[in-house]
Amino acid sequence: MSQYRAIRGMVDILPDDTPLWQMLEQTASDVLGAHGYQEIRTPIVESTDLFARSIGEVTDIVEKEMYSFPDRNDESLSLRPEGTASTVRAMVQHNLIQSPQRVWYRGPMFRYERPQKGRQRQFHQLGVEAFGIATPDLDAELLLMCRQWWKRLGIDDVLTLELNTIGSGEARQRYKAALTDYLRGHFDALDDDSQRRLDTNPLRILDTKSESTQAVLKGAPSMSTFLDDESRAHHDRLCELLSLAGLSFVPNPNLVRGLDYYNKTVFEWTTDKLGAQATVCGGGRYDAMVSQFGGRDTAGCGFAAGLERLILLLQALDVEASADPDLYIISSDENALGKAMLEADRIRSEFPTLNVVQHLGGGSFKSQFKRADKSGAAWAMVFGEEEVAQGTVTLKPLRSRDEQMTLDREGLNKFLAQLEALAQDVEE
Ligand code: HAM
């Protein structure tokens, strides 16, 4: 019989990889918690219209990447392609935007893209959204928070912050018109995709990868000459705050992002260590979305990081995390197994940070030791006939040159306390 396989572009995260994922998510939750952000969890399915209206009808995501389907009641639903729209929907629905709010989320997102390294059809984002603060100090805080996370992960040296401002909606309309006029005059030199976008989403042409189109863009009008005064002042103050904090960035006037809801600040964190899928995190301001969703006029700003890409980056830098057991308990016979099980239970209550695996399913001492070794455990804890008779246990090191020792209850407790302290030191 043929075996089932995961759907193309949807990937299993296997037990060997989860310690790195847990480390990645734990550092984020620590950093975000330290900045007063609280977690929000929203459904994976929303009405298709929610995404179409906020992300934009003529974006790649809405035009060709959404997993949309009619439910049994013929309502069009979609698997979420991102988290901002759902978060705004939830905040408005539950009337939470009366005062400033800072929230974060993590979870799977779905986009029907061509799978490749760093690009999947089900992928995971960890995102942050803040509401009710229109001033650039918020944009600065979000970027500093990213930097804190990168530092804890040890990847701050390999990430570059690219920053731009795309101004107000009106400024963008004026710029769009000027850009379209200019590009129409060079229509034949544009690549196919850009020719198509000229009528639908001309700003997206700015971040084309086509060399011929890039050459045409060299002579194009620049967004900065069309910026409204308020957006310019906002951007200048943000740059000032970032330099005050020693956070350097690369201005990228062509950065427009693939979602239509942004205004003023947009940014991306990129790396040269991952090949084509170089952006690990992106975000910006979306001051119009809350009112678009029926809430009262409230500023919004946030970002989302792609967790698969961060994992690839950690792996490229040989960062490791392990969930190997501290102790692997083996026993000589049924009687010893019963004693061992009670002792394992006691140890887990009294030393809750230790990772204690008990050998189950029987087998000779030799085969149990083999399993202990394979588990990656630091120590084998042995309950043999003699140990049971004496009320002791034998501890045998599996990965170090420490001495083997036989300990009574008091000695064992001392040993376990040291082991716990050691494990905490390593974590810190
Ligand atoms: P986005 O740029 O579409 O922004 O996605 C954010 C990040 O998700 C990307 O930088 C990338 O790392 C990751 N990502 C996107 N698509 C894929 C994929 N197919 N496979 C793997 N990783 C992917 C947003 O989604 C906005 N909601 C961010 C935001 C939050 N803006 C304001 N608040």
TrEMBL record:
<keyword id="KW-0067">ATP-binding</keyword>
<dbReference type="InterPro" id="IPR015807">
    <property type="entry name" value="His-tRNA-ligase"/>
</dbReference>
<keyword id="KW-0030">Aminoacyl-tRNA synthetase</keyword>
<comment type="subunit">
    <text>Homodimer.</text>
</comment>
<dbReference type="InterPro" id="IPR036621">
    <property type="entry name" value="Anticodon-bd_dom_sf"/>
</dbReference>
<keyword id="KW-0963">Cytoplasm</keyword>
<dbReference type="InterPro" id="IPR033656">
    <property type="entry name" value="HisRS_anticodon"/>
</dbReference>
<dbReference type="InterPro" id="IPR004154">
    <property type="entry name" value="Anticodon-bd"/>
</dbReference>
<dbReference type="InterPro" id="IPR004516">
    <property type="entry name" value="HisRS/HisZ"/>
</dbReference>
<keyword id="KW-0648">Protein biosynthesis</keyword>
<dbReference type="Pfam" id="PF13393">
    <property type="entry name" value="tRNA-synt_His"/>
</dbReference>
<feature type="domain" description="Aminoacyl-transfer RNA synthetases class-II family profile">
    <location>
        <begin position="1"/>
        <end position="325"/>
    </location>
</feature>
<keyword id="KW-0547">Nucleotide-binding</keyword>
<keyword id="KW-0436">Ligase</keyword>
<dbReference type="InterPro" id="IPR045864">
    <property type="entry name" value="aa-tRNA-synth_II/BPL/LPL"/>
</dbReference>
<protein>
    <recommendedName>
        <fullName>Histidine--tRNA ligase</fullName>
        <ecNumber>6.1.1.21</ecNumber>
    </recommendedName>
</protein>
<comment type="similarity">
    <text>Belongs to the class-II aminoacyl-tRNA synthetase family.</text>
</comment>
<dbReference type="InterPro" id="IPR041715">
    <property type="entry name" value="HisRS-like_core"/>
</dbReference>
<dbReference type="InterPro" id="IPR006195">
    <property type="entry name" value="aa-tRNA-synth_II"/>
</dbReference>
<dbReference type="GO" id="GO:0004821">
    <property type="term" value="F:histidine-tRNA ligase activity"/>
</dbReference>
<dbReference type="Pfam" id="PF03129">
    <property type="entry name" value="HGTP_anticodon"/>
</dbReference>
